[in-house]
Amino acid sequence: MERVLVTGASGFIAGHVIAELRAHGYAVRGTARRSVDGVDVVTADLTSDAGWAEAVDGCDHVMHTASPFPAGSPKSDDELVRPAVDGTLRVLRAAVDAGVKRVVLTSSVAAVATGHREEKVRTEADWSVVERSPAYPKSKTLAERAAWDFARESGLELVTVNPGMVLGPLLTPVIGTSTQVVHQLMARTVPASPKIGFVPVDVRDVATAHRLALETPQAAGNRYIVAGEHMWVREMAAVLAEEFNPRGYRVPTGSLPTSLLRVAALFDKTARLALDFVGRREAVSADKARGELGWTMRPVRDTLIDTANSLIELGLVPAPRKPAVTGSSGRS
After folding, report:
1. Which fold would CATH assign to domain 3-168+201-227+283-298?
2. pTM score, two decimals?
3. In this structure, what are the phi and psi dihedrals at residue 151, rounded to the nearest 5 degrees?
4. Which pLDDT tens digit goes with each residue over 198-222?
């Protein structure tokens, strides 16, 4: 039985990657700062060399999913860039020292489609423009570029998976940055939707892409975008409202003027982060993943509904109002 090390085992993507690997007969070890239910965990941190040799020992492959992802704009880009770059290289060096067969790195479309002035469909041949990128896309771009440079120099067999906005059912009651949009709409912590959009993808399909990237021989040395078509947050709200408002939830479906978002950004770190994406339409192609990996993704509507249902089941959104009662209330 082949053994795979999954870094950042307590994370949203990592949890689904672990489940996918186990379902297909792999033994799994994880790294994390805390214990993870049902997983053999080695304590290791991206900012330190401690624990990494032990973590990769005896593993055939590594899936490096761990990376800092902010809930708001950091004070300095280096708060994200340095841990992302240095941590990635730390993991890759340990993998080479341990003689692992292949590393699958979780990157992002943020390393592909950010900072470009002209609108066009982006592919794996594209790289984000670091000089015009906010901190998170900059960190993902520089970390992935560093990984490819290291792989070329060391002979390491590397594949990267570049997902869009990762949504889908939560496995733990932790609301990550990517699922925060759905949570805010379901919990009605925002009055309306700003003009912000993403290219969403289901976390379960992202996990499948990681496994396929591990198993497909010709995937070595390639990047793979996994994401759907661009979708404005207001369009996501409409899907959620159609499904959940009849159940008593109050998903807001209006538009939030950018001027109000700018005011909110003075006080709210999430709003400050959102300003970087206002009015930007992402367009990426997942044709390479479909053609070379045989990857497919489920409908985004299903993903949105499954995300919201998991938030409800985990008690992360307030209970709904009672749906309106129709019909006669007269006495007989």
Report:
1. Rossmann fold (3.40.50)
2. 0.92
3. -60, -40
4. 999 999 999 999 999 999 999 999 9
